[in-house]
Q: What sequence folds into this?
């Protein structure tokens, strides 16, 4: 028994760590296959021992909501579903009843509330009881109706998703392949939980309703399908479904399976719900699962093969990703011979070695993954030198994850990728400098740092003689480069290729310090981490870049070639100019913190995420709260005021 409990504690630690990474940070530190296997082992041990430990993931739903967005409790708890991979079990579960079989979409669950025909609230699933308020972001989803014919209170649940085609389009716009998003689910989660809904609007997020929670005064004749039809009438996109019974359910499952390759909407299985609403509710629930529905997950097609080698692929940031190359196998109708291992930590966990027999599968029937290492020789060396430049490598740890980096600042892989990013559309936007052209120019030793691009005319005679170039194309390139000498600070910061700092974050940083590049270069990690959307990790990355002597020198060289434009800001009613506010707690006079933040910013003030010595005041209706922000404000002598005090004092 003691061995079993020790194993349970070990499993709980692993699973909770994976859940925290997945739900709170949108990071995937183990595959779905690994998670399911460990979860099922824990369930089996709990059943055998009759013990369920307090922190077991089998007793919890989801993970706690992050602090960046206002939180709100759901009217009804959102439970996970029991699941099966056995198709025959679906027939047994239905018995002599009818059911509704639909896609189990792989995105982010959202609860929408409508009153008097208007959308008034959108809240994420969160931990199932408390979610994050994302109303402003929901309003810019591509297919969510802002007004509906029904005038009573309506509450629905739906899955926010980004289609595979939109996902590919978004990644294609990112010239640096190492900065590509990993999968639609992570991109969707990050898009929905943005503090700036302009970014959400650019991501083509869609919502598909899968459940109706409340609709006052509507008779659905006890039919789950009638609820779907009602939602369609109101203008909602509804998850694709089929009405089934025990005789037809297996054919319906097979039909959905055939649609996977052509389905543009990410899914990770199916959901079977009771068509008879009252009967389904009469079945009750367990501590974690409702009994009126069950999830069906595809049984992964797994093939055994032999690991041939690990390829190490360097990037512009210095990160070197391990890629497993194995004897080709057929999976889900295609030949597969490669799978990303993601990082050093996962490679160590799998104990990989040349010649090991491994099993591979496609996550969600799409992305090749290693499921298990059957021989676990563990003799795979981690390269001490970069495969591109031969420079020294170093294993670095962030968020409990070990990754391999090339530490040579002059690595050719870094140069080509970083220069390619520098000239890309959302950065300096220089036409005519493709990655192939950059490779030729770098190979000739014509550019060594970003500023050299703006001195390229000194080598016009060499460029004219390059393959694919002539007088005209060379002149076009020079003019294209010159056009970008006048640029903005957000474009410049994005172009520098600082890990984690994209155009959206660069805009926030520029605005925070009034588009003053010298001030921005001197900000501290504490100051920067107080900017919404930045956080400690990005702040450290940014400040580490700006502190590096070589990077500072090269940025000086670049700035000498550029003219930075500052956007025109109206001085009308800039009554809060120079003042810095922090907002926390529940609000009563504003819909949410973003609304109050917008008012402050339009009047010239700033809103940050943490209390510092530069904070003018902390806005919190619960002045006596023992929260961390209240405590920090009291320590620093920063006034804590209510909404009304803020309005009377600062808005007049």
A:
């Amino acid at each position: 028994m003691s061995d079993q409990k020790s194993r349970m504690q070990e499993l709980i630690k692993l699973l909770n760590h994976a859940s925290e990474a997945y739900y709170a940070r949108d990071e995937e530190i183990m595959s779905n296959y690994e998670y399911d296997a460990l979860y099922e082992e824990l369930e089996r041990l709990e059943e055998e021992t009759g013990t369920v430990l307090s922190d077991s993931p089998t007793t919890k739903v989801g993970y706690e909501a992050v602090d960046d967005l206002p939180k709100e409790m759901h009217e009804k708890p959102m439970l996970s579903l029991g699941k099966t991979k056995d198709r025959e079990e679906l027939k047994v579960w239905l018995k002599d009843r009818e059911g509704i079989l639909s896609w189990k979409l792989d995105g982010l669950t959202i609860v929408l509330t409508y009153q008097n025909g208007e959308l008034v609230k959108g809240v994420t699933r969160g931990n199932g009881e408390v979610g994050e308020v994302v109303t402003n972001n929901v309003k810019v989803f591509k297919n969510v109706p802002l007004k509906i014919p029904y005038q009573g209170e309506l509450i629905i649940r739906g899955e926010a998703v980004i289609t595979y085609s939109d996902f590919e389009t978004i990644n294609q716009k990112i010239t640096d392949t190492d900065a590509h998003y990993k999968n639609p689910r992570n991109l969707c989660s990050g898009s929905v939980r943005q503090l700036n809904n302009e970014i959400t609007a650019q991501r083509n997020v869609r919502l598909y309703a899968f459940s109706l929670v409340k609709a006052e005064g509507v008779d659905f004749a006890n039919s789950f399908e009638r609820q779907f039809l009602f939602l369609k009438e109101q203008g909602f996109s509804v998850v694709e479904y089929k009405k089934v019974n025990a005789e037809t359910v297996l054919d319906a499952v097979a039909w959905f399976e055939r649609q996977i390759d052509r389905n543009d909407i990410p899914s990770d299985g199916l959901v079977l719900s009771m068509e008879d609403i009252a009967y389904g509710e009469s079945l009750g629930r367990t501590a974690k699962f409702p009994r009126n529905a069950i999830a069906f997950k595809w049984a992964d097609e797994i093939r055994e093969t032999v690991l041939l080698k690990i390829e190490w692929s360097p990037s512009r940031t210095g990160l070197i990703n391990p890629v497993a190359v194995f004897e080709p196998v057929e999976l889900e109708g295609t030949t597969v011979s490669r799978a990303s291992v993601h990082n050093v930590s996962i490679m160590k966990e799998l104990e990989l070695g040349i010649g090991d027999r491994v099993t591979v599968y496609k996550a969600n029937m799409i992305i090749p993954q290693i499921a298990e290492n059957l021989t676990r020789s563990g003799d795979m060396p981690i390269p001490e030198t970069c495969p591109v430049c031969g420079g020294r490598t170093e294993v670095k740890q962030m968020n409990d994850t070990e990754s391999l980096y090339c530490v040579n600042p002059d690595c050719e892989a870094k140069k080509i990728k970083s220069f390619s990013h520098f000239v890309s559309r959302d950065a300096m936007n220089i036409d005519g400098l493709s990655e192939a052209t950059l490779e030729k120019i770098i190979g000739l030793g014509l550019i060594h740092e970003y500023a050299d691009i703006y001195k390229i005319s000194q080598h016009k005679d060499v460029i004219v003689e390059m393959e694919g170039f002539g007088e005209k194309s060379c002149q076009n390139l020079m003019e294209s480069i010159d056009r970008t000498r006048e640029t903005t600070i957000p474009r410049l910061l994005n172009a520098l290729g600082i890990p984690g700092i994209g155009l959206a974050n660069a805009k926030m940083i520029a605005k925070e310090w009034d588009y003053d590049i010298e001030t921005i270069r001197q900000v501290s990690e504490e100051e920067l981490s107080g900017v919404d959307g930045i956080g400690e990790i990005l702040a450290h990355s940014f400040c580490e870049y700006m502190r590096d002597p070589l990077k500072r020198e090269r940025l000086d060289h670049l700035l000498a070639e550029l003219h930075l434009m500052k956007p025109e800001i109206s001085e009308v009613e800039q009554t809060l100019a120079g003042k810095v506010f922090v907002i926390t707690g529940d609000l009563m006079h504003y819909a949410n913190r973003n609304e109050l933040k917008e008012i402050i910013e339009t009047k010239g003030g700033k809103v940050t995420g943490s209390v510092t010595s530069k904070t003018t005041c902390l806005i919190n209706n619960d002045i006596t709260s023992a929260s961390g922000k209240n405590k920090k404000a009291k320590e620093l002598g920063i006034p804590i005021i209510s909404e009304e005090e803020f309005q009377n004092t600062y808005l007049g």
